[in-house]
C-alpha cells in the first residue's frame, strides 16, 4: 500500500484561491485516449495514489535494478570496476539530458538542500550581503539562507500576493547588495509555476545570481536551462524523478562553479585517484567541472542504480508525455471540483500551471474534513496550507479522479 502523508499545519499566509467560474484550462472536458502506463508500476490497491509531489513511486524497472545492485553487495566477487565507476557518469548524462544541460554542469548530490548549500557556503557571503527568497519556498530553499543571518547576511523575504510572487515585489526587494535570488520553480504548497525567465532577468539586471529549487518540476515539466537565466538549479530525486530518497543533483553554470569554494573533496573526483598504486600525493588536480562537487560515496549502488533506472523510464516515456497526461487529469479535476463549489489555487491559471493542483472548501475546517474523508477512503493526497494538493502521474487514470469526486461529494 502506498504511504500517505500526514497533514501539515503552519502559519504561513494563505494562498489566493480561485472561485467557481474563474478557470479557463485548455483541454478540459472529454478525454482523448491516453497511453497506459499502469503496468509499469506496482499495484497500489486498495489505495489510489495521487501524491507524486510527496513521494514518486518506483517503476518496476527501478525496483529490479536495485535488486541487481543488492546482488552485487551480497556477492562482491561478481563486482567489476565498471560497476563502481560508470554508474555515476551514466546518471549524470541522463540528468543533463532531461534539463538540456551539459553533463559537465551536473554534480550528483543527496538532496536539493546539499546543492543549495554548495552555493550558500561556497560564495563567501558576509555581513552586508543581501539574499532574497520567497516566503513560500520549500524548507530546503528557506532555512539554508535564514541560517546565514548568523554571519550578518541580510535575508529579504518576499510574500506571495494572489497566490504567487509578483515580479514587481521581487524587483523591489533586490538591491545593489543582493548576491542571490533563491526561489522555487514550482510551489510545493500550491502548484504555482514561477516565471523563471522574468525573475531570472530581474536578478541578473541587479548583478545577482539566480538559484532555483526545481524539485517539484524537473521530470514532470520540460526545461531547457540554457535558454533561461538560471545560474544554479538544485533538485531532489525522490519526487518527479521517481528516484530513491537521498538522491539529487545540482546544475551550475561554469562561471558560477569557478566562484565557489570547495570545502569537501570527494576522492573519486580527484584525477588519478583510481590508480591506488600510484596516487598523486605530491600534487593532485581536480576536474574543472561540476563533478568536483559530487557527494562523497557517489557510487551508491542502491541509490544510483535505482535512480538510473527511473531516469531511463522517464526518458523512454518522455517528459512531454508526463506533462500532457497530468494536465489532462488535472483538467478533469479542476472542472469537477469547481462544479462542486470548491475553489482552486492560483495554479489554475494557465500561465502558472504545473502537474500539481490544489483546491479548498469554504473553510479550513471543511477542507480538513474532506482531506480526512479521502484518507479514510484510501485516496492519497496531501494537505498543504489549508488546501488539498493533488499530484497525479502516469500510473493514474481518469477513474482515479472520478473516485475522488465520488468521495468529496
What is the first-to-last residue Cα distance? 25 Å
Strand order of the largest sheet: 3-9-8-7-6-4-5
Q: Which structural class is indicated by helix and strand composition?
A: alpha/beta
**pLDDT < 50 runs, ≥5 residues:** 1-31
Number of strands: 14
What characteristic shape results from the CA principal axes? globular
Mean residue pLDDT: 90
Q: Share of helix among residues? A: 25-40%
Helix count equals 11
Please summarize the sheet with the most strands: 7 strands, mixed
Elements, N to C (H/E): EEHHEHEHEHEHEEEHHHEEHEEEH
Write the layout of secondary structure elements.
Blueprint: E1 17-18, E2 48-49, H1 60-74, H2 81-99, E3 106-109, H3 112-122, E4 130-134, H4 143-146, E5 154-158, H5 167-173, E6 178-184, H6 196-205, E7 209-213, E8 232-236, E9 248-252, H7 254-257, H8 301-317, H9 319-339, E10 343-345, E11 357-360, H10 364-376, E12 379-380, E13 382-384, E14 387-390, H11 398-408
Parallel strand pairs: 2-12, 4-5, 4-6, 6-7, 7-8
Antiparallel strand pairs: 1-10, 3-9, 8-9, 10-11, 11-14, 13-14
Task: Write up this protein.
Helix 6 links the parallel strand 6 and strand 7. A seven-stranded mixed sheet has the order 3-9-8-7-6-4-5, sandwiched between helices. It is globular and about 70 Å long. The chain is 32% helix and 14% strand. It is of the alpha/beta class and 409 residues long. The two termini are 25 Å apart.
Short structural summary:
The chain is of the alpha/beta class and 409 residues long. The protein has eleven helices and 14 strands.
List the keywords.
5-stranded antiparallel sheet, 7-stranded mixed sheet, alpha/beta, 409 residues, 11 helices, disordered N terminus, single chain
Amino acid at each position: 500500500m502506498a504511504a500517505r502523508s500526514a497533514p501539515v499545519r503552519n502559519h504561513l499566509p494563505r494562498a489566493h484561491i480561485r472561485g467557481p467560474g474563474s478557470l479557463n484550462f485548455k483541454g478540459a472536458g472529454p478525454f482523448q485516449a491516453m497511453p497506459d502506463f499502469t503496468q509499469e508500476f506496482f499495484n497500489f490497491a486498495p489505495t489510489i495514489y495521487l501524491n507524486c509531489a510527496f513521494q514518486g513511486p518506483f517503476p518496476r524497472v527501478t525496483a529490479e535494478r536495485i535488486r541487481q545492485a543488492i546482488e552485487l553487495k551480497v556477492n562482491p566477487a561478481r563486482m567489476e570496476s565498471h560497476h563502481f565507476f560508470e554508474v555515476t557518469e551514466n546518471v549524470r548524462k541522463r540528468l543533463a539530458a532531461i534539463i538540456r544541460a551539459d553533463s559537465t554542469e551536473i554534480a550528483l548530490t543527496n538532496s536539493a538542500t546539499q546543492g543549495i548549500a554548495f552555493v550558500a557556503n561556497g560564495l563567501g557571503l558576509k555581513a552586508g550581503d543581501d539574499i532574497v527568497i520567497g516566503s513560500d519556498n520549500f524548507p530546503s530553499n528557506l532555512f539554508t539562507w535564514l541560517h546565514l543571518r548568523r554571519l550578518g547576511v541580510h535575508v529579504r523575504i518576499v510574500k506571495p500576493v494572489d497566490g504567487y510572487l509578483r515580479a514587481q515585489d521581487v524587483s523591489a526587494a533586490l538591491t545593489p547588495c543582493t548576491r542571490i535570488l533563491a526561489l522555487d520553480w514550482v510551489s510545493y504548497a500550491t502548484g504555482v509555476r514561477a516565471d523563471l525567465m522574468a525573475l531570472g532577468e530581474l536578478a541578473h539586471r541587479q548583478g545577482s545570481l539566480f538559484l532555483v529549487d526545481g524539485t517539484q518540476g524537473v521530470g514532470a515539466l520540460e526545461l531547457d536551462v540554457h535558454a533561461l537565466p538560471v545560474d544554479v538549479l538544485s533538485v531532489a530525486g525522490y519526487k518527479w524523478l521517481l528516484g530513491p530518497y537521498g538522491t539529487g543533483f545540482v546544475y551550475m553554470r561554469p562561471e558560477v562553479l569557478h566562484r565557489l569554494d570547495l570545502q569537501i573533496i570527494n576522492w573519486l573526483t580527484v584525477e588519478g585517484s583510481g590508480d591506488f598504486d600510484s596516487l598523486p600525493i605530491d600534487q593532485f588536480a581536480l576536474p574543472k567541472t561540476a563533478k568536483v562537487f559530487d557527494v562523497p560515496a557517489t557510487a551508491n549502488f542502491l541509490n544510483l542504480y535505482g535512480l538510473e533506472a527511473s531516469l531511463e523510464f522517464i526518458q523512454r516515456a518522455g517528459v512531454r508525455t508526463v506533462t500532457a497526461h497530468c494536465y489532462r487529469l488535472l483538467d478533469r479535476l479542476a472542472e469537477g471540483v469547481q462544479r462542486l463549489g470548491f475553489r482552486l489555487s492560483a495554479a489554475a491559471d494557465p500561465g502558472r500551471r504545473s502537474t500539481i493542483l490544489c483546491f479548498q472548501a469554504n473553510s479550513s475546517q471543511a477542507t480538513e474534513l474532506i482531506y480526512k474523508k479521502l484518507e479514510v477512503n484510501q485516496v492519497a493526497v496531501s494537505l498543504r496550507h489549508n488546501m488539498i494538493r493533488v499530484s497525479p502521474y502516469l500510473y493514474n487514470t481518469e477513474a482515479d479522479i472520478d473516485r475522488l469526486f465520488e468521495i468529496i461529494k
